[in-house]
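Lab meeting minutes (informal)
Scribe: AK
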Amino acid sequence: MSSNQWARSGMEEGSSNVRLGTLIALMVEEGQDWKQIEIPPPDAGAVSPAGSPSVLTSSAPSTSLPPKPKSGPLRLSPAARHILDTHGVDPKLATPTGPRGLVTKEDALNLLKMSPASKAVPAMVAPADPVPVSRAVPTSAAPPPPPSSRPNIPPLSVPGKPGAQGTFTEIPASNVRLVIAQRLTQSKTTIPHSYASIDCDMAAVMQIRKDLGKEQIKVSVNDFIIKAAAVTLKEMPEVNVTWFDDGPHALDSIHISIAVATDKGLITPIIRDAASKGVQEISANAKVLAQKARDGKLLPEEYQGGSFSISNLGMFGISGFSAVINPPQACILAVGTSRTELQLNEDDQTLRTQQLMTVTLSSDGRLVDDELASRFLDKFRANLEQPQRMALA
C-alpha cells in the first residue's frame, strides 16, 4: 500500500472460516471517506484504476470450466490427494498454487466446486482400536514415479493393510520412552563425545569370584567393575565433574549409575558412595536396585543424581561398544564380554592365555580430554587387574 492510501479492514485480524469472496479490506486515497465509497461487486475484479478504491476479498474459485489435464510430474499434498481420491476426481485437473507446483488442499476443494458431477467414493472406516494404526497406499493413488526419482507425495494410510511397500505402523511411546528419547537427543546434540578403549585382564577377578563362590558368596564381574570405577574416581577427582551453564563443577560425592534394561526402557539406579563400600555390599545394593527398576518401584532419589555411569552388555555377548553419556554426567563406561586370548610372554617367549575384557570410556570433551581419559583408563585397568589395590584405596 502506498503512502497516500489508507486501509479499512473489514475482518478482524486472525479471523478464521472466512467464506470465499468475503470483503476483507477496503483501501482509499488519503483524505477520502471510506463510508462514502461505493463498493464494487465481487466480479468487478481486485485491480482498481488510479484514484479508485481498492477492494480486497478472499480468493474465490473461478466459474469457468475445469482446466485441461497438465503434463509433467504431479505433486499433491496428502490432504489434497485424499480429497480427490475420495471423490474420484482426476488430480491432473487441479491448478497447483503451492510451492514448486504442489496441489494443496484448497486447490482440491476448488476443483471439486468446479466439478459437481464427480462421484464420491466411500472412504474406508478406521477400526475401533485407536493404536497401533497400519499405514498403506490406496489402490487409487497416482502411478508410481519412475525408478530412482524422488516420490511426489508420502504414502497415505489405510487401516488393516500392513506390509505393503512404503507403509508403516504407528507405535505408541510410553512416558519413559519419551524421556529417554529427549535425554539421548540432548546428550548427542549438546555434549561433544570423545571415546577411548582399553583391554583389561580379568584373571585375578575371576579367581577371586571362584574363591568367594566356595564360601557361598556370590558377586558378579560387574560388581568389581563398579568398585574399580569408584576407586579410580576417588584417585582422580578431576574426572568426577559435571558441566553446568557457567562451566565445570567438581562433585563432592561418588555415586555410580548402573544401566538396567526394563520392559519400559533403560533406567540407571545409583550405587551411592560406591568408593567406600566393599564389593559384597555393592553387589547386594545392585541386586535390590535392579529388581526395583524392573518392577517400576524405584524412588526418584534412587535414580537421580549419579556422577558416573556404567553400561555392561557383556552378558549379551557384545565384545565392545560406545555408550551415550547420561547428562549432566561427564563420562560413561561401556563394558563388553570377556574373551580368552593367547598372548606371547616376552620374558621367556612362551604363550599364555589371558581373559581379556574391552571397556570404552565415552567422555565429555569439554571436561575430560583424551589425555585425561587415557590416564583414567590406565588406572582403572590397574585397579581391576589388581583387586588388592582397591582395598587400600
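Next up, CB showed the second protein from the same session:
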Amino acid sequence: MCGENSSSLAPGFFVLNGIPGLEAAHTWIALPFCFMYITAVLGNGGLIYLISHEEVLHRPMYYFLALLSFTDVTLCTTTVPNMLCIFWFNLKEIHFNACLAQMFFVHMLTGMESGVLMLMALDRYVAICHPLRYSTILTNPVITKAGLATFLRSVLLILPFTFLTKRLPYCRSNFIPHTYCDHMSVAKVSYGNFKVNAIYGLLAALLIGGFDMFCISVSYTMILRAVVSLSSADARHKAFSTCTSHICAIVITYVPALFTIFTHRFGGQSIPHHVHILIANLYLMLPPTLNPIVYGVKTKQIQEGVIKLFFKEKDVLVMK
C-alpha cells in the first residue's frame, strides 16, 4: 500500500513473484514448462513449414491452421522465456513499459487465437454444409481479409487495456503475484480504483470470446444438423471426423481461459492463489503444445505430408 505522499504514479518496474506459495519448487516447476515450450516451438514451427511447402495442404483449413500455429508460438514466446528466468535465475524485475507491452501482446494474441478458432469453425461449416461452393466462398482474398479483420479486432479491443492500466497510480516498486503481466493482476497492485479495468476486461472477453463461442456454437449446430441428415453412416463418420481435431482445440483453449477470466472476478477468494496462477500458465501453454499433436494425430493429410517430407529429406541426404 502506498503512502499518501507517494510521488510516483507509475513505478520504474514491477517484480513478478512467480507462483506464490510454491517458490521452493520453482526450479522443478520450470522443467515441464520448458519441455512444453520446446514442444510448442518445434510442433508449430513444423506445422507452418509443412503447410507452406506441401501443395496438397494449400487449402483454407490449413491456412487457418498455420495462422493458429503462428499465433500460438508467438503467444507462448511472449511469456515462457521470462517465466523461466524467474524460476531458474530469480530475475523477477520487469520494467513498467515492458510489463504493459507483455500484457498487451498476451491478451491480443489470446484474442487472436479465439478469432482463428472461430474462423476455422466457419471453414468447417462451409466445407460440410456447402461443399460445392467451398472453393468459391473461401478464396485467398477472403481468407486474407478474415485474418486481417480478426487481428484488427484483437488490437482495437485490447489496446485500451494499456491505457486503463497506465492511468492507475502505483507505488515506486510493485510486487505482482504472477509469472507474467496479466491485465487484472497488474491492475490489482495499484492503490487506485480499478473497477473500470475489471468492467472493460469482462466486456472485451465477452466481445471476443463470447462472440466467437456463439459463432462456433451456431456453426457446429448447423454442421450437426447436416451430418445427421446424411443417409450413409460412413459419410456421417467421415464428415464429423474432419471436425474432431478442431473440437479438441476449442476445448483445450476455452476451458482454462474461462476459468482464468471468471476466477479473477468472481472466485478469487475461494480458489488458492497458486492454483489460479498454475491454471493461468496452462491456459497459455496447453493450446500451443497440444494443438500440433492433436492435428498431427487426427488429420490424415498432415500425417501423409510429414511422411512425404521425411522421406524426401532422407532421399536428398542419400543422394548427397
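CB comment: The mean pLDDT is 86.
No objections, moving on.
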